[in-house]
Each structure stands twice: as C-alpha cells, then as structure tokens.
Amino acid sequence: MTGHDRSAVDRARDPGYSAAMDLIIFDLDGTLINSEAILLAAQHETFARHGLAHPGREAGLGVVGLTLDIALMRLGGLPAPDAALAETYKDVFGAMRRQAQTDAALDEPLFPGVAETLAALAGMPGVKLGIATGKSRRGAEYIIERHGWHDLFATVQTADDAPSKPHPEMILRALAETGAAPGRTAMVGDASFDIEMAVAAGVIPVAVSWGFQPVATLVALGARHVLARSTDLPGVLGLQASAPVDQAV
Questions:
Q1: pLDDT tens per residue across span 184-196
Q2: In CATH, which superfamily holds the domain spanning 8-34+110-236?
Q3: Model's pTM, two decimal places?
Q4: Fewer CB atoms inside 10 Å of the end CB: C or N, the chain?
C-alpha cells in the first residue's frame, strides 16, 4: 500500500508517517549535480564543429533542462530542431564524459548538502522520491549508477518518456506511477522550465538558489519556496527529521 492509498485517519494514527508529502521530484542538472563545466564545453565544441557562434554562458545554461534538440535549437537561434547538431552533441558529450574519468575539470559533482538531504528524505516513512530530467534515459541512469541511487527513486522521468519541459507530462507520469496526490507533491528545480512544469501539473514548485537560472525569474514564475541550502528542503516542506539511515547517496 502506498502513502497515497492510506486514509487520512491511518496517517494521523501512525507517528512515523510523514503527513506533509507523498512525493518529492528532483531535477538533475543544476539541482542535484553541478554539470555546468561539461555541458558548456560540449555546447561550445558542438557549435564550433557546425560553424555556429555560441552565445555565451548565460544563454548556454539557460537552455539546460530542455530536451536536447529543443535546447540546441533555442541556443543556436534556429528555426527548427537540427538532427545533425543533436547527434554531434551526443558524440561530443559522450567523449567528454569518458574524458571526465581522468579530467576533474569536466566532473559532475553533487552540490553541497545533496547527499545528506536525499539520505534524510529516504528515511522518512511515506515519502517517495523521483527524478524529472531533460536528460535521456541513458544519461539519467549514468548519474543514478554513479551515485548508487538504484533504490532511492520511486520514479524516474526523462526526455525519452515525455515531451520536453515545461510540458507537465513528466510530473503527471510520476504521479500516476507513485499514486501521489498533486497537492502533496513537490518539484524541486533550478530552471524556469521546472517551475512552469510544476505549476502546470498542480504540484508545489520549489526553486534552488545555486542552480543555472536567476532566482528572481523562478519566483516570478510561481516558485512557492526558494532553498538557500539543499538541507533546508525537509523543513520547508514541513517534514520531520528522521533518524540517520545507512544509505550511500
């Protein structure tokens, strides 16, 4: 029986049950992992190979979270998605990710406090965790494998499963898979697309302050909470801290 299946009376009688939330969904790039270096490097190399001028760091980070073909189209100011451009990016990014195994400059580390926050949330009865990312399924699985998150997330939504953010389909699929109620679900992200997606799906939009887009933009789009630190998330969502759990994240 999932948390969503339990009645309000059952929840109230169970002191170990976290009454505030059913599901917390996280974006990856710019929210859980700091992938700025490798993403920008891959964009620059891809554009150079196609004779295109890269419009700069702010623009490059501003499209992170969109499905790859749409992100590159917007970044290049193109009238339509370019399949060849996307294929080049995939090749370049794959080579850079292999290079990152020995080149720390291309690493994709977790942001400070992320491991501790996920471990705390994972130990809270009734709370499920999810991912909604513009990465491909393969890209998301790489991150999950790298950090030992196999049993941590109840639902993982990727660019292979739904239309690009900010379309709400990723969140709607996550709700259906977990039985979570929209009003008891949060979407945590750093991009305008995350907040717009959350608003469209009727879940709680939570912005992070350390990501790739300005906080003011996220607030203007409807972010209900802004995290100064990832470890603030349980308190912001009204979740009670639980005993530490032995789970590698």
A1: 999 999 999 999 9
A2: HAD superfamily/HAD-like (3.40.50.1000)
A3: 0.89
A4: N
